[in-house]
Structure to design on (108 residues):
């Protein structure tokens, strides 16, 4: 049985003045490019309410193998280069892959 997996990219945008431009860039450029390059089945992103400098993007994949393949792909290298060109050292980020181990149906 294959299980779904998520690539989670956490970005820290410490300069308040960078947050709106970062949000616009990520929304209109980076996330659409990443979904296309990764072949993700879904993607969404968040801003923390506890720490406004914390941005998190989630990319969903049909399997752990698919998520792991993305981390090793040439496509991610291009996205990293585009990110670095746009934000340099002003925005730091980390990546993690998590495996979905339980999903409950929700009934209303």
């Amino acid at each position: 049985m294959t299980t779904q997996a998520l690539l989670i990219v956490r970005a820290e945008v410490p300069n308040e003045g960078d947050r709106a431009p970062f949000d616009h860039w990520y929304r209109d450029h980076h996330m659409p490019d990443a979904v296309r390059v990764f072949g993700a089945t879904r993607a969404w992103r968040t801003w923390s309410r506890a720490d406004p400098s914390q941005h998190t993007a989630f990319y969903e994949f049909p399997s752990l193998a698919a998520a792991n393949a993305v981390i090793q792909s040439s496509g991610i290298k291009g996205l990293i280069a585009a990110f670095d060109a746009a934000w340099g050292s002003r925005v730091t980020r980390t990546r993690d892959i998590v495996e979905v181990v339980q999903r409950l149906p929700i009934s209303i």
About this structure: The chain has one domain: 5-99. The longest strand covers residues 5-12. Strands lie at 5-12, 42-47, 54-61, 92-99.
